[in-house]
Every structure is written in C-alpha cells, then in structure tokens.
Design brief:
five-stranded parallel sheet, binds S-adenosylmethionine, EC 2.1.1.6, single chain, elongated, D-amino Acid Aminotransferase, Chain A, domain 1, ATP-grasp, nucleotide-binding
C-alpha cells in the first residue's frame, strides 16, 4: 500500500456521532455555491470533488469514501464496465459523483444513489447537477431495502452489474440477500463493500465467503428464529443513525444461497489517513496461490504428513482400549450354523463401511468386502476389521463394463455369497442392476441382493425418467422439461414470458439446468438461475452448456426452499429403515431430522409409496433429494432427484442393531419385523475430521496469513472445528476399527493428490466420505 499524502487529510472525525447530520451538509452546499471557482465547478466532476475535499480538509470532516479508496472502485468500474451501478448510502454525493463519472466513461447507462436521509439526498442531487451528471445519476430517497424493492417492482432495476455498499453496516447482508432474491444480483454481479474491516462487518464477510452448504444451514437457523443483525459490528456503528431512526428495519429476504462469491480484501486509506479496508470480488487472476493446482495438492499432502503423529496416537490408543474389550465378532455369541456369507461392495466409502460394521457388530454372518481400487492397496475398507476378507473389483467403465461385471460375479460364485449388499458408487449404478439379474440366474433361488434391477435403476436414476415416473404415480414434481437443443430451452422461456403477468406476485419463475448424465463440471455450475438479466445473456449462457442429443439437460423449476435428503432400506417393496436430514450440494455434516417431524413423515410417506409401487421384488437402497416449500404441516415437498443406491446418511444408523437385523432376516429369506427402523433419537451428528480440518482451520489460516481473511474468521472456524471434535462423531473413525480412518487420511488421499499432480488432473472439490474427486 502506498504512503498516505498528509497534505490531503480531512479534518479529524469528531467523537460520538457528532461527525455528521449537524448541519454541515447544508453548510457544504453554501461552501460549494459560494466557491470562488464556482464557474469551473459547473459540469466538472473532478473540480466538484476537489471542492468537496477542500471543505473536508479546511472546514469539517465528511464521511466520504475519499480519494484513495475511491480510486480502487473507479479502477473496478473501468474493468467491470457496469451498465447499471447502484450505491447504497450516498451522503453528500462524493462517491456518487466520482463513480457516476467513472461509470459514464466506461459506457454505463444508470447510476442509482440510494440515500435514506432526504436532506442528504437533496445535497447529492444538487451537487450531481452541478457536476453535470444528472443524465446518468438518479438519486433515490428512502431506506435502501424499500428503494431496491420499489425500483425492481417498477421494472427500473433488472440487474446490478456493480454495487457499492457504504450505508448502514448491519444492512449490508440483508440488502444483498434482497438483491439476490430478486435476482438483480446474480452470476457476474460485482460488489464493493466499504469499511468491512474497520469499523468491521463480520456478518457480511462471513456471508460472502460462505459455501452454499453453510448459507443454507444459516438460513435454516434464521428461519428457526435465530436471525440477529449486526453481530460483531461495533455498537457505535450500529447505533450511528439513532438520532433520526429509532428502530432500524431489515429486509427478511432469504437471499440465494446458491450464489458463491469470490472475495478479496483491499486495504486503503480513509480520507482522514486511517487504514481502511474494502472487500471486492476477485477475478481468476487474483486467486491466491494456495487454491491453484500444484500448491493445493502439495499442501494437502503435507497436511497429511504433519498430522500422522496425531492419527497414529488415536489408532494406538484405540488398539489399547480394544485390547481390554473383546473383539466384536467373539462378543456376539451368535450361532455359527446360522451364518450366511454377505458381500458388501463399496466399502471404501463411509456408507459401505458403516453397513459392514453394523453387520459385524450385530449379526453372526461372515462379511466380505469388495471395492474398486484405482491405486493398489489404498482402499480404507481393505484394512477394516469389519470384513473377513477384501477383494478388488475391476473399475466400471461406460464403454466396456464386462470386466467389472465379471469380477463381481466370479467373486460371488467363488465365495458362495448368500446376500449381496451393493453400496457401489454412481459410476457402477447400471452395471450393478445388471449383475443382480445375472447373479440370481447363476447363484440360485436362495441368493438375495439389496440392489435394484437395471430397469428400476434406469427409471429412478435418470433425472427425466424419474420425474416422469413420479408424475405417473400421481405424486407432485417440480415443473421439468427434457431439453436436447438450445431452442427447446428458449421455448420454455417464451411460454413463460407469455404467462409473466400471472407470476408477477412471486417474481419471474426461475429455472436451473441439470445435465442428465454424470458431468462434474456441469454440476458445479448447475445452480445458475435462469433466465439471466437479458435475453442475450441467457442465450449466451445456454450456448456454453453444449446441449445436444448426446448431452441432454433437464430444465427444472427452481424451488428456493431448503433441501433434504433421505436414505432408506427397502426389502420386498417395504421400507425397513429410513432417515431424512438437511442436505446441501457437498454434504459433509449429517444431522438426522426427528422421525416424528412433519417433514420426515412426509418424506417417508413418499418413499413408502414408491416402494409399494415397486412390488414384491423391489429390494435395494433408495434415497431421494427433496426441496421444501412452506413450513410446518403445510410444507410441500418436491422430489428433485432419486439415487437408487445407499446414501452416506446411512452413517446416522451406526448404532442400530435393528437395521442389522433387517439385513440379516433378508439374508435368511425371512421378512423380519414390521416396524420401520429410524436412528435413535437424539442421534449423533456426523462430520469428517479431514474435511473440517481443511475448511475450518487450514483455509481460514492461509486466508488470514495472506491478507484475505481475519483472525476473527479463523477463530470462528477453530471454534466450529472444536465443537465438532468434542460433540459430534467422525464418520469414519470407530475405536474398535480405527485403521480405515488412518488409511483414508494418510494413504488414500495423499496417493490421490500425488496421482493428480503426476497426471495433471485438476480437481475442484473432493468428497472425503465418498472418496470422490470432482474434476475441475
Ligand atoms: C458513509 S455514508 C456514505 C458515503 C458515500 N458513499 C460517499 O462515499 O460519499 C453512509 C450514508 O448511508 C446513509 N444510510 C444509512 N442507512 C441507510 C439505509 N438503510 N438506506 C439508505 N441510506 C442509508 C446515511 O444516511 C449516510 O448518508
């Protein structure tokens, strides 16, 4: 940061709140219109700003953005070239004249200055007129939230390309959420927020830096009545406008949690010379080094290396503890003659491992495990005490699935498997359906499988077929269309436009585009809400999706409510165990909903209806994603996706003997109890230590060290991590079977990162529980 030029310093700011609204703003007007240089001010933004600065230096302090911070935003304007720019908080018009002029030079069409105090607004309007900017600047008097809503409702404000936030600090976040909900701030919008470090605006920084998952969680907490505005903002700032506004009002908008911001802090000077900081979005070029391919993989390998002693300590302590407790197999005292051979596939993932552990703890059976293993000997499941043997399967491959199918079938024959519990990942979904059919033929009538056949998998797994099927059994679905051409997408918008007047009440209907096949890259952008600000932008965006016959998309009505996911074990068309929990895109924290809650009951009813429709041969794991609209008993649930396979939410059953019994009865050809097993309440919440260590500790630490984050954010992260360590349970670690935990973090993941480095495979996210790497 360059040195501050002392000759430009404003008069010092007075104590308390006497530094504004004491008549100085009107005094400024007199100063300007009595200026000896008045004729040179007319039509010259530069000279008007210089005269305002002169007043601030020689007369009284003014709370303007000032020259130094102003330059940062002016540069941003030149880069972003906003057509429409909005500022929240105009005061006497300094930022409005500086940025209005910059926006005009960059080809901008409209600059809205939103100011609550009518006297200040009159000063802004007068000085804007003096500077000759009245054709681009529009001063809007009133509280920012009401003004935003009105401008949007009138159709004047359809999209904000750049927004400068410089008004009432606690309203930064609530106004931003309002803009998101109205979709006037959307993908590509840029925000510049003043004073986020001094005096400080932790809620705003937290919000713009949160993941989708964190924002959804927060929104839910707020929906449960915990919304507090201005937490962490100094009282002096919070109470700044009390003289005129006794009680501040806030927009209660939920925002759009799916919008992700890149944020960066920029330090600069207040016009008094204090160091201030603004936050503005980053562009790809300024992404710090630790998010780049090579450093990020190297850092994660290093983290794994450094934490070996801690993990080794826990493993050792677990073995010592287990020494004093009998091993699970010898403790269960089951009758060996009733032993069946159960094969669980997918045991490198938490879901498969959880099921083998439940079975080992609570049943007499011989449990064998299998999984694909791209890097030899790296599978965490291979080292688990819950399986009597581990087998490596060929990797399913869309072009030639035979090796995978053969390896699975020959294993089943060799081990004389009585029951196969499939927990395989999505890449083998259809193949597993085929294996059931073949295995039933080859292993005889006593063979059973917890896996749907391929026709069922196809019907449920493919997004558009699933929606059609659910519609056919008269259950509600969100409005959805399969699109194989860009024109089909645009057609839906055209029809929508015709209906637009009917939708005015809740704003224009929003859509998301989901790739029907598995496409990690497209999935990452899936939450872009359409249509965008203009028909042209929407058309351009649709083009980037490369929609075609080979790459079909599902266009689905966007429902803004919270998301839930479920896991169910269905045997012979009956639901045997069920759990529902709040969900998000990359779900790494699991909390069960109480089974008696109206939400959980409705999701169970839905699952039972699908299971019943499947008939007596319908056996497998079934999980749905739902979006909820409304609350309480009147909540309406929309299924958006089905995964006809196990969900990691099964981890919530880790204690459940009843669930083990359900599998066991099935293995013996009996139907078992009628009750539906749910996790014991209150159930533990689950997290993955490695994921939390990186997201709550490593990233905030690096962000702080490299000037992007604050100590406060790091301490919030540390507190969250500590809370999970102490009160939650790790999804992989159990005392009697600690090795998979060690292998996951010190063999499996480092091997993956090294592999990515060697092969130049870039990734955007990883899922610790499913061991999946998402391509960048
Ligand atoms: C720091 S000053 C803005 C300075 C101005 N951006 C500049 O740099 O020249 C903050 C202004 O926000 C206004 N304000 C505070 N809360 C507001 C709200 N809810 N809506 C609109 N304006 C608000 C205040 O009246 C005050 O004039």
């Amino acid at each position: 940061m360059a040195e501050f030029d002392q000759s430009k310093a404003y008069a010092p700011q007075e104590e308390g709140t006497s530094f504004f609204d004491d008549g100085r703003e009107i005094e400024l007007l007199h100063f300007m219109y009595e200026h000896p240089n008045l004729e040179n001010l007319r039509g010259s933004p530069k000279n008007v700003l210089a005269a305002i600065d002169e007043y601030g230096r020689t007369k009284k302090y003014l709370m303007n953005v000032g020259e130094d911070k102003g330059r940062i935003v002016s540069d941003l304007i030149a880069e972003v070239k906003p057509k429409t720019m909005v500022e929240l908080g105009g005061y006497v018009g300094y930022s409005c004249i500086l940025f209005g002029d910059a926006a005009r030079k960059a080809g901008g069409q409209r600059y809205y200055s939103l100011e609550r105090n009518p006297e200040f607004a009159a000063v802004i309007a007068s000085l804007v007129e003096l500077a000759g900017l009245s054709n681009i600047v529009k001063v809007v008097v009133g509280s920012s939230d009401a003004s935003i809503a009105r401008l949007h409702a009138n159709g004047d404000l359809k999209r904000i390309d750049l927004m400068f936030l410089d008004h009432y600090k606690p309203a930064y976040t609530t106004d931003l959420k309002l803009c998101e909900e109205l979709a006037i701030v959307s993908v590509g919008s840029v925000l510049a927020a003043d004073n986020v470090i001094k005096p400080g605006n932790p809620p705003y920084l937290e919000y713009v830096r949160s993941s989708v998952e964190e924002k959804r969680k927060r929104a839910q907490e707020e929906a449960n009545g915990k919304a507090v505005h201005g937490e962490g903002i100094p009282d002096k700032t919070v109470n700044q406008y009390q003289k005129r506004v006794m009680e501040e009002k806030f927009s209660n908008s939920k925002g759009d949690p799916n919008l992700i911001y890149e944020s960066r802090l920029v330090n600069s000077f207040e016009p008094t010379d204090h160091v201030a900081a603004m936050s503005s979005p980053t562009h790809q070029s300024s992404i710090p080094f630790f998010y780049r391919h090579v450093p990020k993989n190297v850092l994660l390998v290093l983290l794994s290396f450094i934490t070996v002693p801690v993990s080794a300590f826990f493993v050792l302590a677990s073995y010592i503890l287990s020494y004093f407790r009998p091993s699970p197999k010898s403790s269960n005292g089951h009758n060996a003659s009733r032993r069946k051979t159960i094969l669980v596939t997918g045991i490198s993932m938490t879901k498969g491992l959880t099921i083998t552990r439940i079975l080992t703890l609570h049943t007499p059976h011989c449990i064998i495990g299998a999984d694909i293993e791209a890097i030899p000997f790296s599978s965490p499941g291979r080292y688990s005490r819950s399986v009597s043997s581990f087998h490596t399967l060929e990797t399913p491959n869309g072009d030639n699935s035979e090796p995978y199918i053969d390896s699975l079938l020959s294993l089943m024959k060799k081990e004389k498997v009585d029951l196969w519990i499939s927990c395989s990942s999505v890449i083998g979904a259809l193949e597993d359906g085929e294996v059931v059919r073949l295995a039933e033929r080859e292993l005889g009538s006593d063979f059973r499988a917890v896996q749907f056949r391929e026709d069922v998998v196809e019907r449920l797994h493919e997004k558009d077929k699933f929606i059609n099927y659910i519609r056919s059994i008269a259950l509600p679905v969100p409005d959805s269309h399969r699109c194989e051409t860009n024109a089909q997408v645009l057609d839906v918008f055209l029809k929508e436009d015709a209906m637009r007047e009917y939708n005015v009440k809740d704003g224009r209907k929003k859509w998301i585009m989901k790739p029907i096949g598995v496409d990690d890259r497209a999935r990452a952008n899936m939450m872009t809400l359409l249509p965008l600000g203009s028909a042209d932008e929407t058309r351009k965006y649709i083009k980037t999706l490369n929609i075609g016959k080979e790459n079909p998309y599902q266009m689905q009505h966007y429902i803004s409510g919270p998301e839930y996911c479920t896991h169910a074990l269905v045997l012979n068309g009956k639901v045997k165990s069920f759990v529902a929990c709040p969900s998000s895109e990359l779900l790494m924290h699991y909390k069960a909903l109480p089974p008696t809650s109206s939400l959980a009951r409705k999701m169970l009813d839905f699952t039972e209806r699908v299971a019943e429709d499947g008939g007596a041969s319908f056996s497998g794991h079934l999980s749905f994603d739902f979006l909820a609209e409304g609350e309480g008993e009147s909540v309406r649930l929309y299924p958006i996706e089905c995964n006809p396979r196990a969900h990691t939410a099964v981890v919530l059953f880790r204690e459940s003997k009843a669930m083990a019994d359900a599998y066991s009865y099935f293995a013996s050809g009996r139907s078992g109890k009628k009750d539906i097993t749910t996790p014991m309440m209150p159930s533990w919440n689950y997290y993955w230590a490695g994921h939390d260590l990186v997201t709550f500790v490593l990233i905030p630490l690096l962000e702080m060290l490299f000037g992007r984050g604050s100590l406060e954010e790091l301490s919030i992260g540390l507190a969250e991590f500590w809370q999970h360590l102490v009160y939650w349970r790790d999804g992989t670690f159990v005392v009697w079977d600690p090795l998979p935990f060690f292998v996951l973090y010190h063999i499996y993941w480092p091997a993956q990162f090294v592999d990515c480095l060697l092969k130049g495979k870039e990734w955007s996210r990883i899922n610790v529980s499913t061991t999946k790497v998402f391509q960048a």
